[in-house]
Amino acid sequence: MPFSRSGIFDDKSLTIVGMQTHLRRSLGWAFLLTTASALLLPWVVFAGYVQTHILPVYRTGAGKIVLDIEIQNEGDATAHNVRTFVFLSGRVDERGNLGDNTPGGTISVKSRFEDPTLKPGLYTAVIRVNFEEQGGAPHRAFEFVKIPFGQVDGLESSLSVELEGPVINTRALWGSGSAIRVSLKNGHKKSIRPLVSFYFPDGVSSTEPEKSFELQSGEEKHGKIPLTVHAGSVSAIPFHAVVTYEMEGTHYSTLANGKIRLEARPFLFKAFAVAGVMVLIILVGRTVYVSGKGRKSA
User: Fold this and answer.
1) Rounded CA gap, 242 and 255, in Å?
2) I want to staple 69 with a disulfide (CB 3.0 to 4.6 A). Which of 109, 112, 163, 278 is the partner?
3) How far apart are CA 28 and CA 50, in angstroms?
């Protein structure tokens, strides 16, 4: 018989013990659920995204190019620590400490390039907006603006540009490094020295974001730009390049783009296993051969 305080454990005591055990379990589950809710609630409450829309308007005058830029946040989360960088033919205009861009908000920036040495021609302004999420994760957004400067009626570039993005297996053991293939062909009747400047979105970087070439008339050249890509959930990552050069006192600029494709192919362990077996067979065979040769010599 079960024992109680006096020596015997009756049915009433068993019922009380069962109720206490059930209560302890219920309190444990309640504590776990409360803790989980407290941890997950901030993510639920503050979940959102920043959608940056860049609206530029340009003006040109004697020796100057001016851009009036509006940065609109069309998302439902705040973009923190907004900064802008405007690139124009080797020149950079940086504006920091622009504050936060709240949902539905707009930040206005004026970027001025005043240089009497600006040559007439076709320019491409690159606007990059840097910002951070609430948790501090950095992001960047781009806008590209083609700007005719001076008397350029009918002016066209005769340089053909092709960009071939790589296909990267995100499950490869050696990492997500690869390269972009660049092909240039000079259709002008004179030699040129184009500079190719690359602009990558979040998750993509390069140790060589710029590469220069020298092309004679009719010449074609190829080059490779090394890449490092951090695996993401998208299957294609767009990127852009601006190609600039000058010829006979005229500035030329061409905007090109391409895509980096991501695949998640299973790693071929079978191939490595077969190669390992072949190496093992060779080593064993060599060992047997050397051992047999040693016995004959003895």
Assistant:
1) 5
2) 109
3) 39
- For the chain, which domains are there? 49-155 (2.60.40.10), 156-290 (2.60.40.10)
Residue with tokens 């710029």, as numbered in its chain = 210
Q: Are strands 250-263 and 167-169 parallel, antiparallel or unpaired?
A: parallel
d(CA 118, CA 133): 38
* pLDDT, tens digit only, all 298 positions of the chain: 444 444 444 544 444 445 455 545 555 554 555 555 444 444 334 458 899 999 999 999 999 999 999 999 999 999 999 999 999 999 999 999 899 999 999 999 999 999 999 999 999 999 999 999 988 999 999 999 999 999 888 888 999 999 999 988 766 655 556 899 999 999 999 999 999 999 999 989 999 999 999 999 999 999 999 998 876 667 789 999 999 999 999 999 999 999 999 887 665 544 555 566 677 787 766 666 556 655 555 5
